[in-house]
Every structure is written in structure tokens, then in C-alpha cells.
User: Fold Phosphomevalonate dehydratase large subunit-like domain-containing protein from Nonomuraea glycinis.
Amino acid sequence: MRLADDEKAMLDGAEGPAVAAAMDLLVRYGEALGAERLCDIRNVAGTMTQPSPVKAKLVREGGWNKAFSVLNLDSDDDVEIPPMRVPTCQLQQGFGEDALGVAPYPPGMIELQADAESFYGAHGVNILATCTPYQVGNLPVRGEHCAWMESSAVVYCNSVLGARTNCEGTASTGAASLTGKIPCWGNHLPENRHGTHLIESAVPVDGFLDWGMFGYFVGDVVQENRPVVTGDLRRPDLADLKHFGAATASSGGVEIYHIPGITPEAATLEAAFGGRAIPEKIVYGERERRAVYQRLNDQGESADVDFILLGCPHASLDQIARAARALDGKKLNPGTELWMMTPRALRTVADRNGYTEIIHKAGGRLLTDSCPAMSKSAPEGTRVFATDSAKQAHYLPAILGIEAWYGTLEDCVEAAVTGTWRGELK
Ligand code: F3S
Assistant:
């Protein structure tokens, strides 16, 4: 890999041992990938504060410098960590203090995380604590090179914002935050961003449920390729695209998609394919739509619902407002719990708008920082859960061994209030 002068200097230790270890990691990583060079970045989204038993042990042995060295720099040396060189934010993490007494999640992990937030916050990591950093002020511009983790965030970053990132890991984002560099390969290169598959919807894709199901179909069909989607698509909003992308990255491994006339790198169908031949279309019709719904509900047997999960990816203010309207004046069934996940910054606004009070009065909880899949934690005794998220319906049955129902926000709220799942595809 060709290194620029500033990169060689970092590697040679001109900026201290932590930066040298970070550059060494990036060179090893880039060479393994066949990258020819590094690119300059100014936007990192990683998981420095995420608690775990391994991290707790490292902190006991050598403090937070040691934990960062081992986990974020892949280095056995215990080096002092300097401030982050480029803007860096924390993605989702474990449950925070607001989950104490609500989620059966170890208080020791909450304390460890609070400690991590102090350390990394002082080193310049912005503790956004969400899988949707783009909802709370971290918005790279079109064409900007980034180093992000979290599949649902990566696909949003590439597709909706037109910024450029691969799906990075704990170590590469750690190294990127101290150097402002990342291997220049994959989605960073324009020729790797054009569409490979054309999927046309013959049925209306309108609203959160349908964008999630369509995404689940598309991801399953293209796996790790780059879909261009067209057809009877009603104009999506932020929540629809967030759900669509997260679903494509759950049933498949999509990191970028294009919607001609909507996403920034696809002004036209031809542009979405970079001027190359347009492949034969794959059609998503009523039969396929019903099959996806069936598949997302395959894990549901009992209609007695213990738990409702909303806000995956983390809910927008508009989604919180809709949930509050649906729950206003109602009470949850005594045996059923409802959690809605959102970034802390949006929770603050929801508090000011009175949405939180409405949700809590009904017996639900508006929680931050994490989610049941990430923290492997649902209300004690949960056997059956329901959600409006294709991603959570995909993962949570395997993670927690519980049954799942998938439907609309309204289906979920009705199940929360009655304790019974009655969702069906209209
Ligand atoms: Fe976010 Fe958890 Fe869903 S991290 S994307 S709410 S699985």
C-alpha cells in the first residue's frame, strides 16, 4: 500500500505510540484487503463505550487505556490514548441508567458504561449512543469518506446521504479515530457504488410496514450486492428509508442501494447503474409481499403477547409522536410490556413535547442507548414479542429464543393494550 508522508510519519511514531499502533493496524488491514492507499476521513462512528465482560476484565487489569489498546487498536501494548483526531461518535451501546429496574440487564454493565462515557467523552468521542447517528446531528455530506460500523447506519450513510463508508469494525474505527484515515477500497471507490440488480415493485410500497417488507425481500434476493429499486413506490420519509435499509442488511448484507429520483447517486435509472447495461428486472408482486409477511411471522405461534418492541432502528420524533397518539388515554394489558427505543437527544425533545409522559402513563417505556437485540435483554419471562421492525423480528427470536410477530405500529399498540396479537396483512 502506498503511504502519504503524513501516514509514514504517524507509522514511525511521530505522533506517539497510540497513533503508531493505529496506523500499523490500518496498514495491515488495508494490505489484507488489497487497498492501494488510505483515504482521509473526518467522520467515525464506532463502539468504544459498549460494555462487555472482556472489557470489564481489561479495565480491571489496566484501565481504559488498556481496553482501548487491546480492543480498538488490536495492540498488546498498553499505550496512553490521545484525544480523537477527527470527529468520532459512539453508536448504540448497552442499556443506560434509564433501563435500571426496567430491563433485566446487569447494573455492573451500566456502571462500566457510564465510566467509559466519562473516559471517552473526555477524549472527544461524542456520546450519541444510537444506531442512527444521522438522526441526531452526525450528517456527513455527499461524497465524504467515513468509517462507520452498524449495518443499518452504514446502508443509510451510503444510500441516503451519499457519503462513503464500508461496514467497519471495532478495531478499524478505533484506529480511524486516532489517524483520520481508513483503507480506500469497496464503497469508497465510485466504480463500486453502481447498481448490480434491478428490483421492481408491482405493488404499492407505502408506509413503514411495506418499506420494511420490501427491504427484507430485496436483501434476500441480492444478498451483498447493490440493488436499484423502482416501481410503485410512494415517496418514502426518513423512517421508511431507515427501515428499508435495515431490512436489506438483515435478510442480506446490502451496504448501498439506489432509488432513482430519490437517493442522491441515482438521478436517473441509467445513473444508478453508472451507464452500464441495465439488468433484467426482478419483480416484487403481491405473492412475494405475502411470502415476506409470512416469513417475518414464521416465529409466531401463541397470540398471547408479553412484550412489544418499537424503535428499531432507533425511533425518530415523528415515530415517537405516532406511538404517543396511539397510546394516549390507554393502559397496557397487565401482562404485557412495551419499550420504544430512541436516541437520548430525541428522548429529551420527546420529554419536552409531552410524548414520554403519554407513553409512560399508558405503562410503556421510552428507552435510550440500546435495544433488546444489542443488550440481549427483554422483560423478564418474555415468551412472545411483537414489533414493527423487520430487523428486530429477524434477529430477536434467535438471540433470545422467543416467538415473534411482525406488523404495523397500530397492530403492536393494540397487542400491548389487549395482550393479544391480531395483526394481519391488509
Ligand atoms: Fe438499532 Fe438495535 Fe435495531 S442497535 S438497528 S435498534 S437491532
